[in-house]
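notes to self, project folder thing:

trying the whole complex as one job this time. last attempt i did each chain seperately and stitching them together was a nightmare. two parts in total, labels are on each line so i dont mix them up again. if this works i'll redo the older ones the same way
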Amino acid sequence: MMNIEEAQENLRIVNDTIKKSKYNLFYLGVVLLVYGLLGEACYLFNLLFALHCTSETLAVWSTSGVVLRQVMDWTIRILWFMLFYQSVKREDKGTQKLFLMWGLVLIVAPLLYVSFSLIFFGTDISYLRDILIFLASGICFFYMGKALERKIYYILAFLSGLLTILCIVLWCMGDSPISLGMQGMYVFCIVLGGICMKMKWNLKNRKDQ
Amino acid sequence: MELHEIPEAFQSKLRLVIISMLITGDKTFSELKSITKATDGNLSVQLTKLEEWGYVSITKTFVLKKSHTVAALTERGKCDFEAYVKLLSDLITVKEGE
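result (full assembly):
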């Protein structure tokens, strides 16, 4: 016959396991989706104003756009750090891997770009940023595919690889892509955010049934 | 569910952990392994037992020529697990009330 200590111990095992195995995917999905959509909105916003404004208004809006982008980029990095810290605290290995990969894209790639371009070229080189972002995204998607065993990440890794090559080709030809890397990153964020939210949605539906 | 009716599925800690993990959604073999910290062989044996008892359904597919095993909790597994957790909670409440 089961005694109270055994019952308490088993209930604790159940609660701890449920806590550990729940995904943080919904929050990750929301963060990525909002980040991607805001990033795209900023570009469209700048483009629209570039077409319809006088040079003085354009200068004001373009400065606001840059400031907004900086605020957004740092917000996403802080959010990333908070979510990563939470997954470490919960010993959730799967989510930790996911966040580490995204940390590579959100923090390491832009920092590398700034350092490399300033050291080697003395100025910002957009190609280098684009190449680094796509390369980091490709590596990250590949490892996410391996960790989560989902085909979609391999497809995204392949696309990132193609875009990296495209950027290198454009760079060699001396052509200027309009911040292809940042645009691509925002689109990737929207796609990944959608996938994460859909996975969470499926989970919720199954629970409700 | 009564105390003397507790199914064998819940009488091993590893099986209890596996079922608790599956209540939050389907899990791949590697996800189960990372939380249970069990060996491949032991995990495989426990999953087979749970499948035989009708608590878990196992799907094996191939992703990029690599075997991909996904375990899911069946309706029976879910009902029995909920009954088991209720039994534990009731037992603790009664004993604490005495």
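what i see at first glance: The mean pLDDT of chain A is 67.
need to look closer tmrw
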